Amino acid sequence: MSQTAQSRGGPGQSRGAPGQSRGAGDRPRRPRREPEEEVWEPKTILGKKVASGEITTLEEIIEAGLRIQEAGIIKKLLPDLKSEVVDVGIIQKMTSNGQSTRFKAIVAAGNENGYLGIGQGKSKQMRIAIEKATNAAFLNVNPIKLGCGSWECRCDQKHSVPFKVKGKGGSVTIEIIPAPRGLGLVAGGKIKRLLELAGLKDAWTTAKGSTPTMNSTSKAILDCLRQTFSQG
Known about the structure:
Blueprint: H1 3-8, H2 45-52, H3 58-63, H4 71-77, E1 82-95, E2 98-110, E3 115-123, H5 126-139, E4 142-143, E5 165-169, E6 172-178, E7 185-186, H6 189-198, E8 203-208, H7 214-230
Parallel strand pairs: 7-8
Antiparallel strand pairs: 1-2, 2-3, 3-4, 5-6, 6-8
């Protein structure tokens, strides 16, 4: 047998080292790329003022009566804000071309410390509907005045609403009543979660109307909490 044949290996001999195989599982895996965060580039005059540090709080914008048109403004002023999907659904409509199906989503954005926003989005894709709702929630963030309006408690901590407020959204009417510290939130599941995102820890609530309709219920809650800032 020639030297060339020996180097190639005879019958029954593998070309690799003994005990080693070149299967697909032994190939080195590429490191997973994490999604890069988009850098916010302000496009409006208000956005440029916020980015430069000329405006540092959301209250300054509201008191000046300015309109927020960029979600990046809210993310810059409130970096601890987090979003949460409240409700998703399907919208079906008959058209001349047949049945059309779209998705709708309601998203709440809050920092559990006095700020809450709620937005709605619609699209043919669920992911895009949630993205639209999240962007609308950031643009709709409002400051909420927390306090202790309960005559049973009378402490100086910000754990409830400072006074009784009532809000309306569609057919739903919600009333939030101050409660003593330690009671907790007396409310339904999704209503309770929205109040938690706003920063409330203790409160009584009463609701009238079709509360399972989260579009109207979320608007009623936001209407309630807005009054704590406007009237306070």
